Amino acid sequence: MLHSMDLKTFEAKAGMVAGTLKAMGNGRRLMLLCKLVEHGEMTASDLAREVGLSQPACSQHLARMRDEGLVSYRRESQMLWYAIADPRVETLLALLYQLYCKD
Amino acid sequence: MLHSMDLKTFEAKAGMVAGTLKAMGNGRRLMLLCKLVEHGEMTASDLAREVGLSQPACSQHLARMRDEGLVSYRRESQMLWYAIADPRVETLLALLYQLYCKD
DNA sequence: CGCCTCCTTAAGCACTTGCTTATTTAGCAT
DNA sequence: ATGCTAAATAAGCAAGTGCTTAAGGAGGCG
Fold it and tell me: Which of B7, B8, B20, B34 is the mutation pick for testing A, counting most A CBs within 10 A?
């Protein structure tokens, strides 16, 4: 249980989980993740257009989420196809949808 | 479903959910929330001591989470007893524990 | 009242975030 | 090579974050 950890371990765990939440805790990034859940895989330019971001702004958000391990991509000629990399993130998004978006 | 929303509604929903994630997306605030789940109710000074924060820093984190509707408090003479205000946050924390902290 | 305790709020400051525009890299096609 | 498209990266800047110290409220007790 969480309360059986010493403070250092607790801090470390909390910091890591908070990193994930922080990476998800932005309106545009959350929209990108939702689109990826919906479509499975999308190109960077499609993602940018669908959530109303400029190409560089979108790329920076994707880079941030790559660094945090939330998304990954595969190259297909010029295009990069992005997808959610961590199943736990999909689980989280499913719960968020159920809690905040259902009905 | 999310993908049936128009962009404006999607933005608004995502922004609100992102607000909650952002409020949770900080190591110390996440620790505070965990402690509140664990103990049900705690005073501000107890919270500060348990997560290793100065008293003003802790108060500012609690204010932030109050503004976002995550926590609330009741006064008992000089002491303020804090608790988690939104059952959805407890549900989220339970999933986070299961996904990231179990074993 | 004065004084103490518990807690919040304010002010200041280094650091981070999220956009912009401009530039660069990578791949495909002339 | 040149040119074109898809995407990342860099630089710059306003706004937000998270601490610090210092100053205010709010309630109990002499």
Answer: B34
Q: Could you tell me if A22 and B22 are in contact, meaning their C-beta atoms sit under 8 angstroms apart?
A: yes
**What is the residue-averaged pLDDT of chain A?**
95
pLDDT in tens, B2-12: 556 888 899 99
Give the per-residue pLDDT at B58.
98
Q: Which residue range is the domain that position A39 belongs to?
A: 28-101
**Does residue A19 belong to any structural domain of this protein?**
no
Structure tokens at B102: 């179990």
CA geometry: angle at A18 spanning A15 and A20, to 5°? 120
Residue pair A69/A89 in contact (Cβ under 8 Å)? The answer is no
CA triple B79-B51-B48, angle to 5 deg: 25
> A7: which 2 tokens?
């403070």
- Whole-number distance in Å between A16 CA and C17 C1': 19
Note which residues in 37-96 of chain A have CB less than 8 A from chain B: 38, 51-52, 88, 91-92, 95-96
User: Which pair of structure tokens corresponds to residue B65?
Assistant: 């989470």
Within a domain: A76: yes
- What CATH code is carried by the domain that includes residue A43? 1.10.10.10
Q: How many domains does chain A have?
A: 1
* Beta carbons of B38 and A2 less than 8 angstroms apart: yes
Q: Tell me if A70 is assigned to some domain.
A: yes
> Residue B78 falls within a domain, yes or no?
yes
Q: Is the pLDDT of residue A56 over 70?
A: yes
